[in-house]
Design a protein that fits this description.
Elements: H1 11-35, H2 38-61, H3 68-88, H4 94-115, H5 125-128, H6 138-155, H7 164-182, E1 193-195, H8 199-204, E2 209-212, E3 217-220, H9 229-240, H10 246-258, H11 263-281, H12 287-293, H13 296-312, H14 315-331, H15 344-354
Parallel strand pairs: 1-3
Antiparallel strand pairs: 2-3
Helix pairs in contact: 1-4, 6-11, 7-9, 7-10, 9-10, 10-11, 10-15
Length: 357
């Protein structure tokens, strides 16, 4: 007679070990299903479930003046490093530590998509807004470029850090007024901008702001220039509204700033957009003619901005951050990766042609 020994692991232990992995696989399947059915994503998640998530999580995170997201990642990284030390000292088996890493990764992966990440699979902005297909010929590009330069020149103004609280209210009011035309759910919770705890590190990487999905938090870099503040703030708030696409977040930031009656918001919106248009205008034979149309005060602001960030930049960190961000975006079906930011030019042209609808 053959006698079988007892199972190495009891059923409760197997469940305890395996449930995060099963959950991650389930979410992975949902990710692939929703990526192919963006209208379902929009109806049931982005316009259905997510606004409630944003309301609850933002209300909680707003109780704290500091970044919960930054602290969370600091604790997570320290925990992983502490585990490695225990493995090295022989107080923790490598297999058990590897299982711990796998379980935590599975939980974080699942949580990310449940609380915000599914928004990556909603329809494109043009589809949601039912835009007609915009013209993308050179004549149209030149017309919009001229308009951007004129408005940048006319709205030039000095912005001070003392203006930040008022600017936050103005950006919020602009979002409230324009929300229907942006296809967003307002108020969608609340948005309290927080300063990055590691601003210096991220400044070396060229990061001016980011959205922390786990706690529905907006983060701005301490080294952000005042003239950049309204646009970057509006960009990160767009992410909080469920706009994951970077070009679409740039478009929302531009619309929110440029449609405001406040000159500080207007200037930040137009000068931020101007950089993208000038970059694309490099393909024109007469690019220098457009550069000469930009007034000296604006040119000086752009030079100061360039010198400011170049002085902070660490080439190695910048390249590493760009590569990581590129991989992250492509993983979430943003096929152009970091080039997606620059696609705001075509979206703005679409906005100009469809804004009267």
């Amino acid at each position: 007679m053959i006698k079988f020994g007892k199972p190495v692991l009891s059923k409760p232990k197997l469940i305890a070990i395996g449930w995060p992995l099963v959950l991650m696989i389930t979410i992975y399947l949902f990710v692939n299903i929703l990526a192919l059915n963006n209208r379902i994503t929009e109806q049931f998640y982005s316009a259905g479930i997510y606004p409630y998530i944003a309301r609850i999580f933002s209300a909680f995170s707003n109780l704290f003046p500091f970044s919960l997201w930054d602290i969370f990642w600091m604790v997570t990284v320290c925990s992983f490093l502490l585990g490695l030390i225990f493995v090295f000292l022989g107080k923790l088996k490598p297999g058990k530590y590897g299982l711990y890493i796998l379980q935590v990764t599975a939980i974080l992966y699942t949580f990310f998509y449940l609380v915000w990440g599914f928004n990556y699979f909603r329809p494109k902005f043009e589809t949601r807004m039912e835009w007609t297909h915009p013209k993308t010929d050179e004549k149209e590009f030149r017309a919009v470029l001229d308009s951007v330069i004129i408005n940048t020149n006319h709205s030039q103004v000095t912005i001070s850090p003392e203006d930040y609280p008022e600017i936050d209210k103005l950006v919020e009011e602009s979002y409230r007024q324009i929300s229907a035309r942006l296809g967003i759910e307002y108020p969608n919770g609340s948005r309290r901008p927080k300063t990055m705890l590691f601003s210096s590190f991220f400044a070396k990487s060229g990061v001016s702001g980011y959205f922390g999905p786990f706690f529905n938090e907006i983060h701005l870099n301490y080294y952000l220039l005042p003239m950049e503040y309204p646009f970057v703030l509006a960009h990160e708030k767009a992410h909080q509204f469920g706009i994951t696409n970077e070009a679409e977040a740039n478009l929302c930031a531009f619309i929110v700033c440029s449609t405001s009656n406040d000159s500080r918001l207007k200037y930040s919106g137009y000068i931020s957009l101007l950089l993208y248009f000038i970059s694309d205008a490099g393909q024109l034979k007469d690019t220098s003619d457009y550069i000469r149309k930009i007034e000296k005060k604006v040119i000086l602001d752009l030079r100061f901005q360039r010198n400011h960030w170049q002085g902070l930049r660490n080439v190695t960190l910048d390249k590493a951050q760009t590569a990581a961000n590129n991989a992250y975006l492509k993983t979430n079906h943003i096929e152009d990766g970091v080039r997606n930011y620059n696609q705001v030019v075509s979206l703005v042209m679409g906005w100009y042609q469809n804004k009267e609808k």
